[in-house]
Amino acid sequence: MAIGIGLLGLGTVGSGVAAILASPQGRHPLVGELVLERVAVRDLSRPRPLTLPPERLTTDPEAVIDDPAVDIVVEVMGGLEPARSLILRAIAAGKPVVTANKAVIARYGQEIAAAAAAKGVYVLIEAAVGGGIPIIEPIKQSLGGNRIRRVSGIINGTTNYILSRMADEGAAYAEVLADAQRLGYAEADPAADVEGGDAADKIAILAGLAYGGPVERGGIATEGIDRLDARDVAYAAQLGFVVKLLAVAEKVEEDSAAAGDGHGAEPPGGVALDVRVHPTLLPKHHPLAGVHGVNNAILVEGDPVGQVMFFGPGAGAGPTASAVVADILNIAGIRQVGGPQAGLDPLLAASSWRHCSLVDGSMSRHRNYVRLRTRDEAGVIGRIGTCFGAAQVSIQSIVQLDAREGEAEIVVITHEVREDRFREALGAIEALEGVEAVAACLRTL
């Protein structure tokens, strides 16, 4: 029984999806049952990498959704609007949706999920995070029996390419960004990537799935790599670290959580999470430290599974289209077995089942890298150590890495400490005689 596909967007990802559907040979037999019925494009006259019958193309995306021959709607046009409204229109028409739109899901996922549940249809989002890496369904299904402790990942290929080049070549950020733009790895306006917004969208989605409830996208502490100095990348290497833009979501063991039954039950308020995006020093032996170039990787830590890592290409026509078609096949398989009226699989639909709240950033705990610019004189390191000690910040190492013309650079790595105590120490250090500036401050695993 043929299943009609309506495609909203025929750009990089949409063309990749169409190419897969047009060449089912050697793929799962169900791919051969998928028929591309209608495609919405912006410009009918634009040259395209594949030829489609003209009658299947339209500039009206609503016509695709409303076409009775379309059974599944695939949204790969990007942006917030009209993508959000079109997804909701498809749901209202009783049609399942597959989308690669992380921005829409991160901000309107709860609204979309509620609408889908009310209509009894799926909205699947495997392609929204990690390109071709299977991560959404493993978190919803394969790891569903675990208590997830932390999800951390390198989930933006542009920044990982830039940081890899900075580490390997000692190149400056601006120089590598310009190369990335020429090679097509970075957009003409790279802000969403280099300022961390893209990674924040993705970790919001992963956190919501891993911990069972929506995460407020606007509350995620986000710092990009646009102000990163190449010397900190070089100093990190000397100290046995690599710098990566890391997205992290982890459960916070608050006092209220300890009031549970001792067997993992959550307190009445739900689960407290620390979710953030920032440049991070990773020890060179860390599983994520070896992820280079435009590749992505997501590390999931849970009980009882331990650590599992998902690695692969994080963007591009082929990888992302692969994830889109995987979602289409999931829906098509259910329709073939149970028909259009088949009930929703609760694991595939992944509805929310508890409340998630974000903790105040001042309460998060982590190690730190600090680079201080000081006068090159006796006693400065001792005074810095005293300030850290007074704020109950334990120091792992403190070294002077550069000294010239009466100035020195001192790098400190702290042990894990609460953020508010660390900031208290920094305030005192900034006021010290002999300390010119806190030149850099990065989190450290």
What does this entry show, briefly?
By secondary structure, the chain is α/β, with parallel strands linked by helices. Helix content is 34%, strand content 27%.
List the helices and strands and how they pair.
Blueprint: E1 3-8, H1 12-22, E2 34-40, E3 57-58, H2 61-66, E4 72-75, H3 83-92, E5 97-99, H4 102-119, E6 123-124, H5 136-142, E7 147-154, H6 157-169, H7 173-183, H8 191-194, H9 197-211, E8 221-222, H10 230-238, E9 241-251, E10 271-283, E11 295-303, E12 306-313, H11 317-338, H12 346-349, E13 356-358, E14 365-375, H13 380-390, E15 395-404, E16 407-414, E17 417-418, H14 419-430, E18 435-444
Parallel strand pairs: 1-2, 1-4, 2-3, 4-5, 5-6, 8-10, 10-13, 10-18
Antiparallel strand pairs: 7-9, 7-11, 9-10, 11-12, 14-16, 14-17, 14-18, 15-16
Biggest sheet, open or closed, and with what strands and sense? 12 strands, mixed
Count the helices. How many?
A: 14
Counting helices, strands and paired strands, the structural category is: alpha/beta
Q: How many extended strands?
A: 18
The low-confidence runs, each spanning 5 or more residues with pLDDT under 50, are 255-265
Please report the distance between the alpha carbons of the first and last residues.
Answer: 52 Å
Measured as a percent range, the helix fraction is 25-40%
Radius of gyration (CA) equals: 24 Å
Determine the mean pLDDT: 92
Shape: elongated
What is the beta-strand fraction?
A: 25-35%
Description:
By secondary structure, the protein is of the alpha/beta class. It is built from 14 helices and 18 strands. A hairpin with a 2-residue loop joins strand 15 and strand 16. Residues 255-265 have low confidence and may be disordered.
